[in-house]
Amino acid sequence: MKRVYRLAPLRGFVAESESYYTFMAEQGYRLQRTGAYLDRFSRDTPRKTAYRVEIAQPGPEGIPEEQRELYRDCGWQYVDNYSVYHVFASMDAEEPPEIHTLPELQAKTIRRLRREGWVALAGEALWLALLAGRFLLAEGGIWEALVEALSLIVLLLVLIGIGSWWAVVQLGAAGRIIRRLKAGQPLDHGADWRPVRRKQRRMMATAAVLILLCGLWAAAEGYVIRRDLPQAGTEFPCLLLEEVEDVRRASEAEADDFVGYSQRLEIRHTLLAPLHYHTYEKAVSNLSGRDGDSWMYQDYYETASPWIAQALGNSLADSALFAKGRENFREISCPGLDWVLVSEMELVARKGNRVLFATYWGTASPESLARSLAAKWAP
Amino acid sequence: MARNKFQTLTEQMFYILLALQSPCCGVDCMERVRQMTQGRITLGPGTLYTLLASFEEAGLIAQTALEGRRRIYAMTPAGREMLQGEYARLKAMTADYAAYYREEEKQ
Predict the structure, then answer these.
(1) Half-sphere exposure (CA, 13 Å, Cβ side) for A72?
(2) What interface predicted TM-score (ipTM) does this complex get?
């Protein structure tokens, strides 16, 4: 028996779903299973089959056995269900009695469909609240997330938007059915399903394109290029330890770094920060008698505009690992830089659309780091 | 409670109660209604199932037996009272209607 899968009808359009299944049966496709996105049909001899969609509690037990028995006695066979949608079919040559003969009473069953739409919409609102909470209430605020993961945020928003759009369409359709039934007009079981199908295809195509574009964008933003850290003296916008104190770059053995992370440069490109360098450098003192190494983490951004750089700088200061908050930094003035914050181990500096955040352990003072940076960024 | 929910009966409700003066299952009830009304009123299984559940909840009918998966229902005294009340209301309405046209003919 050949199985064929087709897109499940747009939920909420009850009469159009019924006429679509009838059309499929006339083409020789008998509905076997109905699912969230796809319906399964079996190839059969074309025959006239009437379908009815009942809205009831979700799951196979949503229509009690005694109710199915009553329907069966009247010529309606239970086919399958997905969520609150229960499908019945009648292949009787003689037209079986309609399942619902009081439209006002049927309107009450359709209310469940509307409730389901509201629940779906509430679910999307909850996702949105969680997303907003995750980024707005995150340490450092939203700017770090926006600069580093804008594509991911947009992708999540698109997914929430698509879910909400679907729910709103279902709510609208359910509302129209309820109004019609309440006015005493029964459902038009022969309604033209093609316009709804076209609408559904347009919605799915739009959703697929949006998801694909956002997915590609997220993949591009998430792509990291790894290089060796440039040598001191080369043109490079980040600070290098050899330029700020009397040290030499640690060898692989001295770095004691089995993951190969130190002396490396990671490069990323995002929409709000077209250039982002992340570095980690370890150095060994040239001075005899001094114990310990120097090390420095840095994040350097060239943002799309100076105000983004400033907002990002504040955000980076807020989420600083050692200073633990913007209030534990002090602002200093440094010629050649627009804005500088320093703490015992951290430095945030901005000039135009460039911002640098450094975490440093060594002998140089934060002020001297700022001066070195100003010299590097000098035109 | 029953009075509030079913203050007046629709045609379909009226005939379901009438059909359940003697115990029967859902399908038989539909058939009785069809026969009583000479096919003028057709009851759908969905409508019947919903109404039977509402009547049972309101105490107008009660399940008297279970034959396989089929439930057998019969009208309760409360249901009978409801039906009689509705019949009286309909009779009063037809009497009013007849009286109005008799008056008009006299004039």
Answers:
(1) 12
(2) 0.84
